[in-house]
Design a protein that fits this description.
five-stranded parallel β-sheet, Rossmann fold, 14% strand, 12 helices, alpha/beta
């Protein structure tokens, strides 16, 4: 359900497995006769394709269930869906609007349930992000990640991840759009054990100064379309620009989970600049999810 469900050791074990799988670049039969149900309430490119290809490369099978097919919570209750799918498949990856839908599904399912995105967290994205940083930087010790933008589900998972593994995390968001107090309090508790330093501010220049990673996400997430015009005004000073990137360390990298709104949260051209690792990020969704599926659906775990 959350990056916080994993220990630092479990996170790093997944990353190391993912890196190994990427280097091998070979298919296997480790999940032969295993199946994964994808339940998606939201549109997807990377999440759907990466889970589907991951299962295929491991010898497994995927069943995709669109919102119209399931009608989860309306046509059929979450509890009933969880019970039925537990009789058919080996695991569930669900991409939902409400985090409560996921927790209820996990409560009643007798098979693993993976958070493929909810309004509270995006843990699979955070794992791919950490893998990308690990590959580019050669490790995570002493790395400082600066996040500029909305304190959304992606930011929550990045914060938990950084706090858990000892990476420094800074976030700059407009007043009222930062990390929620409950999330922050939990992350600070983890940071106390790992040595991670957390900074929350409304000044993008403060967080990007001498940072190793500059990260941003859309200002308006799915389900917030009615707020788009207002959010554009509020976030106007939070666009990641070449000037902002120049404040970071010379070997810093730029990251974005995609899809991106060019000219909005990120200036035109930044996504394709030499320091951008955005498309490596996207690729790494495949590899970390293969590692995760091996742990959850095979005898490895």
């Amino acid at each position: 359900m959350s990056i916080a469900d994993l220990s630092a050791g479990e996170i790093m074990s997944l990353i190391e497995t993912a890196v190994s799988l990427k280097k091998k670049n070979t298919n296997s039969r480790e999940l032969a006769e295993r199946s994964l149900a994808l339940i998606f309430e939201k549109p997807s490119l990377r999440t759907r394709i990466s889970f589907d290809i991951a299962m295929w490369q491991l010898g497994g099978h995927v069943v995709y269930l669109s919102p119209e097919e399931v009608g989860i919570g309306s046509r059929e209750s979450v509890r009933d869906v969880a019970h039925v799918l537990s009789r058919y498949v080996s695991g569930i990856a669900a991409r939902t609007f409400s985090h409560r839908t996921l927790t209820e599904m996990a409560e009643y399912a007798t098979i693993p349930v993976i958070n493929a995105l909810s309004d509270e967290e995006h843990p699979c994205q955070a794992l791919a992000d950490l893998m990308t940083i690990y590959e580019v930087k050669g490790g995570i010790k002493g790395v400082t990640l600066a996040y500029v933008g909305d304190g959304n589900n992606v930011a929550n998972s990045l914060l938990f991840m950084a706090a858990r593994v000892g990476m420094n995390f800074r976030i700059a968001s407009p007043a009222g759009y930062g990390i929620h107090e409950g999330i922050l309090a939990r992350a600070e508790e983890m940071a106390g054990a790992s040595g991670s330093k957390i900074i929350c501010t409304s000044d993008p220049q403060e967080v990007t100064e001498s940072a190793d990673v500059i990260y941003t996400d859309v200002w308006t997430s799915m389900g917030q379309e009615a707020e788009r015009d207002e959010r554009r005004k509020v976030f106007a000073g939070f666009q990641v620009t070449p000037s902002m990137l120049s404040k970071a360390n010379p070997d810093s990298i730029f990251m974005h989970p995609l899809p991106a709104h060019h000219g909005e949260e990120v200036a035109d051209g930044v996504l394709y600049s030499p320091n951008s690792e955005v498309f490596r990020q996207a690729e790494n969704r495949l590899h970390v999810q293969k590692a995760l599926l091996l742990v959850l659906l095979s005898s490895r775990g």
